[in-house]
Amino acid sequence: MKTIHDSGSSTDCHKASIMQFDRAADLMELDSALRQWLNTSFRELSVRIPVRMDNGNVQVFSGYRVQHNNVRGPHKGGLRYHPDVSLGDIRGLAAWMTWKCALLELPLGGAKGGITCNPKEMSFGELERLTREYVHGIGDLIGPYKDIPAPDVNTNARIMGWIMDEYSKRQGYSPGVVTGKPMELGGSPGRENATGKGVSMVVSRWAEKENKRLDQTSAAVQGFGNVGYHAALHLSRLGCKIVAVSDSTGGIINEDGLDIEAAGRHKKIKGSLSGFAGGDAVHQDEVLIFKCDYLIPSALQNVIHGGTFEKLQTRIIFEAANGPICPYTEPKLPGAGITVLPDILVNGGGVTVSYFEWVQNIQHFKWKDEAIQLELQTIMHRAFDRVIVLAEERNVSYRIAAYILAIDKVVRAGHLRGTYQPHI
Ligand code: GLU
Questions:
Q1: pLDDT tens, residue by residue, 235-247
Q2: Is the CB of 354 under 6 A from ligand 1?
Q3: Distance (Å, rounded) from C-alpha 335 to C-alpha 284?
Q4: pLDDT tens digits for 365-412?
Q5: Cα torsion at 231, 18, 311, 283 (round to 10°)?
């Protein structure tokens, strides 16, 4: 998705990721060759995907898989289905996965995939044929020790199951080729709600740092897909008042707090939040600018930009989506008294439990849910604490601190492997 920023030109996730990277790289005084190695993709593949539609016609879709960096472990990252998917966005999203895995200290690299399509207008059979044909196109690139896809925007466990099946037909039984699978096919306990759960762990750690109890706070959640719903649900269970939620069809507000379980049930039955009676219906954009302590954008990139930021009525933004803040707008937020907790930290719970799923697949041994929750919390809290300490030490934003920690890990691994050796 492209957005027009304040000075009139457009930006995508690649541009955003480079701008963020450069701010940290400047402070780290990285030389230009090292920067080039770190901010370009290792490999980019575009595939055409012919699909027989239910009406008998063939429609040709465009798909991508971008592998950013694998010095710390196999490439890892989700697959998104959306009409706005572009190579530029996937390229930036792949880089964010490298930084996310490094920050969380998972032994994985970064990748991302996408197909330009509108899954909401496609039948189940069309989606299955699309997915299988995409696996045919990118099959040589993926594998349990090469590149491991996972769910992202508009993809789910069912789709991951088809990927596992299609790949296994060619290579033999390979549950570790993809994560976020159904439990029956080697999925992990806790993966479905992991990103939202991780978001709630970061928010509660932040509240603790502010010496606040969560039942003294309010939050607005933009996006009510897998991430937004579970983040809202876990936060509301912890006592946080969820005063606004939205999906692509509209928003619902209630200053006394929304019943998130009821909203989730409504969405499951009706397919959208529209018509949910637990609050007042508003345009979805109203949710972003609704008064709250914590704003949690949980859908797509670039939703907070020059046109919206002046209307924001929050103090803290937790980026549950990847790249929800336009990089041209971000430098203005501190002046407006708004703090940002960055995506590569906040939404890291998803890939963390993906890592646990991959480990279980390789071990052919199932972990208990309690072990997963405990390990997830350890990893999220450790990364959170390191980001806070470094930001305070260096007097930089939380995003820059997260990048410095992540870049340092990737650079060290590159040096040790000999992939990138500046001095011989
Ligand atoms: N799509 C998720 C993300 O952006 C999860 C990726 C994964 O589990 O590999 O972090």
A1: 999 999 999 999 9
A2: yes
A3: 26
A4: 999 999 999 999 999 999 999 999 999 999 999 999 999 999 999 999
A5: -50
- Count of positions (residues) in the chain: 424
Supply the pLDDT for residue 422. 62
Task: Write the single-letter amino acid at 245.
Answer: V
Its pTM stands at 0.96
> What's the angle, vertex CA 366, arms to CA 351 and CA 94, rounded to 5?
15
Within 10 Å of residue 53's Cβ, how many Cβ atoms?
Answer: 14
* Cα–Cα distance, 179 to 192 (Å, whole number): 10
Bridge partners, 47 (sequence order): 63
Q: For ligand 1, is residue 344 a contact (CB within 6 Å)?
A: no
Structure tokens at 296: 């949690």
Strands 58-69 and 110-116: antiparallel
| Three-state DSSP state, 145 | coil
Residue 291 appears among annotated catalytic residues: no
Please state, in angstroms and rounded to a whole number, the distance separating the CA atoms of residues 111 and 90.
8
Domains plus CATH for the chain? 40-173 (3.40.50.10860), 194-341 (3.40.50.720)
Closest by Cα among 291, 281, 293 to 312 = 291
Q: How far is the CA of 351 from the centre of ligand 1 (A)?
A: 5
DSSP lists the bridge partners of residue 82 as 116
Cβ atoms 102, 9 nearer than 8 A: no
Closest CA to 20 of 367, 401, 417: 401
Contact between 144 and 357 under an 8 Å Cβ cutoff? The reply is: no
Closest residue by Cα to atom 10, ligand 1, is 351
